[in-house]
Structure formats: C-alpha cells, structure tokens
Design brief:
This protein has 209 residues and is mainly alpha-helical. The protein is 68% helix and 4% strand. It has one domain (38-120, 134-208). The chain has helices at residues 8-17, 27-30, 40-53, 55-69, 74-89, 92-109, 111-116, 142-159, 163-183, 188-207; strands at residues 124-125, 128-129, 136-137, 140-141. The chain crosses the membrane at residues 52-71, 77-98, 142-159, 165-183.
Amino acid sequence: MDWDNVAAEDVIEALREVEWSTPPRSFGEFFSRFAFPRSFSKWKSRLKCNLYYYRTNYFILVIFVLGLALVTRPLALVGAALTALSIAFLNDSFAASFNEKFVRTIRHFSPHMAAKMRPPHMPVIRGRSTARKTVYVCGKPRWVFVITFLTASLVMWFSSCGLLWVLYALLTSLAVIIVHASIRTPNLKARLNTFREEFRAVWRNYSEL
C-alpha cells in the first residue's frame, strides 16, 4: 500500500471504522527496529502506517501514562477512564459491540427496558440505510454518551485539581507516540496486515450490496 497517497483524513476515518478488538502487537515487535526516515515524504508515510498498525499499542500507552500521572488522584483517574471510554465510543466497532453486550445484559433483568434501548428503525433505500453512519448506544446517538462522559471527566479533573497533570500526561504520551511512529520502520508483517484488513473492508462493503 502506498501511504503517500493516503490523506490524514483517510487515516482518521479508517481508525474510526476499523475493529479495535485485535490484541496489541508484541513488546518485541513494538521495540524491534528503529531508523530515521530519509525524507519528509518517507516520514509522513511511515507515521501514517505505524499509527494505523500499532493503534492498540498507542492507546494502551496513553492509558498507562495517564494512570502513572494520576495514581495519587483517584477522582482524576476516574475522569481519565471516562475520557478513554468516550474516545473508544468514537470507534464504530467498539460502540456497536458495547451496545450489544450492554443491552444483552439488561435483557436478563428487564426485557422491557432492553427493548427501549434498541436503535430506531432505519429506512432502507435500494438496499442501503439512509443513516448508515449513525451509531446508536442504548437507543441514543453515540455523541450523547461521548459528550456526557467528556463533561463528567472535566468536572472530575477540576474537582481533583488534576487538569494540569492530565495535560502533561497527554502531551507526554502524544510526544512518545509521534517519536515512536516516526522512527519505527514498517516491517513486512505490517504491510501484509494492512492489505488483509483492506481486503476485509472491501469484501464487507460488497457483501452489503
């Protein structure tokens, strides 16, 4: 895959739609080969490739750094967990999986309440839904939960005086991710894995027709 022709918006869209249930890459693979890129175009291509391929590792890295920074502030740590959950809800696969498991659990206690959590009926035109991009969680649009959790996390950070620590932790983790993605050389496994996920996405789109 030629990552030079992939725009940043395409990478963000792919990260939003791709499944995050795959386990993180091994520690040995994550820290195996490093080299500085030879040109600016090589750096951009490598950065986009590694951000996509090591997405789960980077997400765990951010959570780990936040946990270390807020270990002495339990309330701020809960706020960081809510922030991580709201960010995870931005991924279509995670939001759909969470909604399915949560509604299934509620159904054991109250089938009537679980029925109310079903997403609204989507009108279908020519075999495709008119609101294909709309993802629902517990019967509500996904953005309702994202905004609610982000607001709650900000309140917790302000209450625990841990907002500066959160900002420092986020900036530190972001710097580490950029440095790693810039100097970690893409291996053959990363390229083959990208092709395999591209094929799955294309096949899934054809199966919906």
